[in-house]
Design a protein that fits this description.
253 residues; 2 domains; globular; disordered N terminus
């Protein structure tokens, strides 16, 4: 976003520099308030010398239009328009390696701040969040609907052809390798960290109470519909199980 052409002086910190901000100021303030209101914010942002050590050591900065220092400066000066602009693309370039946090003389964590901005982007259903998360819909479906992630032997060229040729590098004879390891890992498509019915229902309640499902609906409505259908079915199964247990107890009495 080019602010160089404008001559308008900021009346207060965070006042947009362009004559046509991307959103109304109230919306920009709401987005920043969600970032600043997180309990982690004050821990991740302590000040900034503008020394650039974070950017100099950032792997992503060498390959993308991304600068940890810019992120810190935008938040430190409360540049609302700049913050919103960074949330459209730049924050998604961070690899979350936290080299910046290890090197910052002020103890800042630009990577941690990026994480907060990403979460707020999801909360506000920004297009940038939708585009980034779309390829992971299958992982999200399994994680939220079953309570666990992909089993290792589900990651193979046949199932993830869209990941490109590099997927072949992680394909391995897992069954053969496990026979050579004197320890039952159980991480297969057959077991896949099985979650019992009661735990699944409890997890669904957590997803609902913490707002995860609301955010999912804003990011991918189709995926939300599929997951809620699965949840409804399992809840019915759980209720049926409880009824059966109650009937058995009555018969014993």
């Amino acid at each position: 976003m080019d602010h160089g052409a404008t001559t308008r002086v900021q009346e207060h910190i965070g006042d947009p520099l362009s004559e046509s901000p991307p959103l109304d100021r109230d919306d920009l303030e709401e987005i920043f308030a969600d970032i600043q209101g997180d309990l982690r914010y004050d821990h991740e942002l302590n000040g900034c010398l503008n020394c650039g050590i974070c950017t100099a050591t950032c792997p992503a900065a060498h390959y993308y239009d991304f600068s940890p220092r810019e992120i810190v400066q935008l938040l430190w000066t409360e540049n609302l328009e700049g913050i919103y602009d960074a949330m459209q693309e730049k924050i998604w370039a961070c690899a979350q390696c936290y080299t910046c946090a290890a090197r910052c003389p002020f103890g800042n964590s630009p990577g941690g701040l990026v994480m907060l901005m990403r979460e707020v982007a999801i909360k506000h259903s920004m297009d940038s969040a939708k585009n980034v998360l779309r390829p992971f819909s299958r992982v999200m479906l399994k994680l939220i609907s079953t309570g666990n992630q992909l089993a290792p032997d589900m990651i193979n060229p046949d199932h993830f052809a869209d990941w490109g040729p590099n997927i072949s590098k992680i394909d391995a004879p897992l069954k053969l390798l496990r026979k050579a390891i004197p320890m039952p890992t159980l991480n297969t498509t057959a077991t896949a960290w099985e979650v019992n019915l009661k735990t699944s229902v409890e997890l669904y309640t957590i997803w609902e109470m913490t707002g995860v499902l609301d955010q999912l609906e804003g990011i991918d409505e189709n995926l939300f519909d599929v997951i809620t259908d699965i949840m409804d079915e399992k809840r019915e199964d759980w209720e049926d199980f409880l009824d059966e247990q109650e009937d058995e107890d009555d018969d014993e009495d």
